[in-house]
Amino acid sequence: MTIKEVEQITGLPRSNIRFYEKEKLISPIRNMSNGYREYSEEDIKTIKKIAYLRTLGISVEDIRRLSSKDINLYDVVKIQRQTLEQQLSELENAKLMCERMLLSGETIDYENLDIELYVADVKDYWNENRKVFKLDSVSFFYMWGGSIAWGILAVACLLVAVFSFGHLPAEIPIQWSSDGIISSLVDKKFIFAFPAACIIIRFLLRPFIWQWLKINIIDSDSVTDYITNCLCFIALSVEVFIILYVKEIMKYVIIILFIDTVVLIGLLLMAAYKATRKR
């Protein structure tokens, strides 16, 4: 059946269906005679299951692991219930605080807000809400790890390759000795390997990074995205270095890699430090 028929049967917009396909959660066959995708009854069932689990707040990564039988549904739902219970508790506390403030009537205003009227122990209250402060202090971390930041890096890599291609020699360096001497040359078309690397990092390497971090780190999604974009940033930096090297503006690749490392680790440590101070 066509995607239009799938929309009618499932009640889901095609943008969601395409997204599930892009994430490799469904794999409809392609009709070789007309090139259109053809969805089976099994695809319909899978789409409905995915959509239902997403309404429960279960991540796409967990659904992917469910489909590959890396984890079982009972454990995923049990963990999600615990997460939702925690979120409900936090929301209920916030609701009670709002109700206390509203009891003061319309006389409350920002200038005269006295939080001690609503909070018995301020330090304990900060500690109970440390998650909020953590998000505030590392907001750049989530922005940097987002798909928009990745898109900017990937497009930047592509634009650098396109606009520099005509000005590059027939062969460009990709390896250097410790003293900055070229040790390996390739065809200048290799410059397009860097935007391709961003795509490979995001869609092929990222799942492996996430899988490893899932075992060792609680917030594996955010950390995975952060690492993914860092790798893309390094790819962009090396691409730029090649151009600068060819133009005889910069000689040592270690310099630009060192700068990248200092900047990225520095930002990460700054976020960790701020988060610690807020606790």
Mean pLDDT over all positions: 84
Q: The biggest beta sheet, please?
A: 2 strands, antiparallel
Low-confidence runs = none
Structural class: mainly alpha
Give the domain tally: 3
The oligomeric status of these chains comes to single chain
- Give the number of helices: 12
End-to-end Cα distance: 54 Å
| Global morphology | flat
Q: Reading side by side through the largest sheet, how are the strands ordered?
A: 1-2
Strand content: 5-15%
Radius of gyration, in angstroms, nearest whole number: 25 Å
One letter per element, helices H and strands E, the order comes to: HHEEHHHHHHHEEHHH
Counted beta strands: 4
Proportion of residues in helical segments: 55-70%
Organism: Petralouisia muris
Protein name: MerR family transcriptional regulator
